Amino acid sequence: MTLTRSSASANPAAKKADVLKLAAEIIECLKYRVGKEPSVATRHDWLTASIKVVRDRVVDRWIESTRRAYERGDKRVYYLSMEFLIGRLMRDAFSNLGLMDQMREALAIHGVEIDIIAGLEPDAALGNGGLGRLAACFMESMASVDIPAHGYGIRYVHGLFRQEIHDGWQVELPETWLEHGNPWEFERREGAYEVGFGGSVTSVTSKDGRLERHVWKPTERFLAVAFDTPVVGWRGKRVNTLRLWSAMPIDPILLDAFNAGDHIGALRESNKAEALTRVLYPADSHQAGQELRLRQEYFFSAASIQDIVRRHLSQYPDLTSLPEKASIHLNDTHPAIAVAELMRLLMDVHGHDFDVAWDITCRTFAYTNHTLLPEALESWPVPLFERLLPRHMQIIYAINAEVLLKVRSTGDFSDEQVRAISLIHEDGERRVRMGNLAFVAAFSVNGVSALHTDLMKETVFADLHRLYPARINNKTNGITPRRWLMQCNPGLTDLIRDAIGERFLDDIDALKELDAFAGDSAFQERFAGVKRANKEKLVGLVADRMGLRLDPSALFDIQIKRIHEYKRQLLNIIEAVALYDQIRSHPEKDWLPRVKFFGGKAAPSYHNAKLIIKLANDVARVINSDPSVRGLLKVAFVPNYNVSTAEVMIPAADLSEQISTAGLEASGTGNMKFALNGALTIGTLDGANVEIRECVGEENIVIFGLTAQEVAERRAGGYQPRAVIEGSPELRQALEAISSGVFSPDDPDRYKELIGGLYDHDWFMVAADFDAYADAQRHVDELWRDSPRWLAMAIRNTARVGWFSSDRTIRQYAREIWKVPA
């Protein structure tokens, strides 16, 4: 099959002029905005100057995008998310504006390599995992498909944390991503809003005794100050705004206290303000952490709602038209308190009665659910909520009364079902259910994969679904192909362009044309060469970061995601131990070289997740140093997994581990990124794996294990994991080795409780799925040995997963939920 290269190219003379102009602008920016001569400029100076030169071009399009939406009266989408895992923005903006090659040449004129300075840009520490990365992909896609949109979140000073591994244990350190400033952002001091906590609520009545409104008088008040980052769409068609809030005290210093010698107390308001936006997800295993997290969620939600209301009223006479001109989208339950905040503003500030306010609210909000784990559907103790947000607690009680009266009026719900629908959990400690609040207030509630959406209706929201049967819908997640193919895998992008032309750059569905090349030996050879180069890059990263030498010809088997028991890194580690035993016991067999990579962070207070990280490193230490393995198996836990690390690991993967307990992963987006970059998936029928199998074909994916229905049946039927373990020699031997201290001689009992949990209850079905997983891995071995077959499968994965573009997802949101053109 003949490969073709597009003949389209820019006019050489015009391109040269553009490069020279950019080169001159970089020097001018370096001198007048950074304050440096080229001879003394550091790499960070060159980075800042390069970003600001391109940022100027972004601002022109940003202003034009904003003006165009205002003049046309476009409906706007407001996307509220606790996380925006945007990663580095330099390549994103340069590529989307079509300036990457010109900037590379312009910097080269000054002896500066763009790849070196691009590597200095820190990852914005604004997220944790899939939730935040999805929000980032959605923001880029909304700009790319020309939807006027604002993202709202928190400008965390330290974000989650920087992960280091000390003696195999995770150590959490502050992430200092703002150390050199952020050249992408614009501080908007004029865009500041007051946010309060605590205090009391009083009633205002008319002369005839009629209640007119309520007045909330907070005892604590802070300012939410806006920092805006432009989000550039593909080809620069639209530039949208990511607005992040930073907290400031209204009174930075209490002079009376300072002058009286109380220097620490004088700064208490500043310290409280700084705490609000210092870290993402403060540990909530104690009351102080819970309170801070609730404060954070209200802080950014309240500021965002005030900003949305102000923007609407600057263009329209009142708020009755808000649902026609704005769609406020809640990304999970974290911003659900925005529902009560909008109700408060509508009633207490703008004078609407409850019925009108509730009608406006219910036609404005939409809600995406991201979890089927009941404990992940946030709830707050009523006393804590009432103390911090007394007026909002009143409003939630009023909403609850409205909903429960409706439920009772139908006569179709039992007392138990009414309790499940209530916004207040009454069994034991009384708690405010934020998932229920978001559900009853939203005109649309969507899941993020077909399976997840079906299970929402059957499990966590079964009774609410019965009350509002038309409300739940599915919007399967997607990823932006600009970041997750074109930028992170330029070698594969060039290869695809040579094969099918450039149409896929603008219409990712055109990747289907690549299917015709899956069996072509010449194309396979070039595809394998790209993969090899990507693997060598990862080998270099691991050598630099960990001092571990790896063979790029080995099968690279990668599991990178947040560390959680339901994601089953433990299953992967146990299989590595079992494989280690088999290689040592049967050296005569033809074992293929394999490297098992892990990456991800554990929540600081999640004991078992942190113990799993330690186990992975203990197992790695033993296996990697055992000469009897002959280098056939290596294990690497790559520390401080983030977007930039993912951009190296994903293109290098041969095998993508998506092995969560069926029925617990809402969707996953890592599975999509790996498949797009030509990795085969080994996984359960969970989340979007179901739809990936439908797209790539069941012959091009390796599926194993219990289905979601079978998991539920096992749990209901009295599952006995001990009997399963005793019946599986490989599993039993691996578990005995781990629990007896083979991998932890310094502390033989370290893993006794962790492994004992598998014998006692095995809630996440690790033992139940082990044999099927081990068999699936040996099937992977067979596939890998047949190189032409493996490469054909990998190419078909790349060719067939264009549907998982976030552009497609956003167009569905726009058409079916937000009712905006896209």
Our count of domains comes out at: 3
Beta-strand content estimate: 5-15%
How many whole angstroms does the radius of gyration measure? 28 Å
Q: What CATH first level of the largest domain would be assigned?
A: Alpha Beta
Q: Give the proportion of residues in helices.
A: 40-55%
At CATH's second level, what is the architecture of the largest domain?
A: 3-Layer(aba) Sandwich
Query: How many beta-strand elements?
Result: 22
**CATH topology term of the largest domain:** Rossmann fold
Bulk shape: globular
CATH superfamily of the largest domain: Glycogen Phosphorylase B
Low-confidence stretches: 1-9
Gap from first CA to last CA? 37 Å
Q: Please state the average pLDDT score.
A: 95
Label the structural class: alpha/beta
**Strand arrangement, largest sheet?**
5-8-9-2-1-10-11-15-16
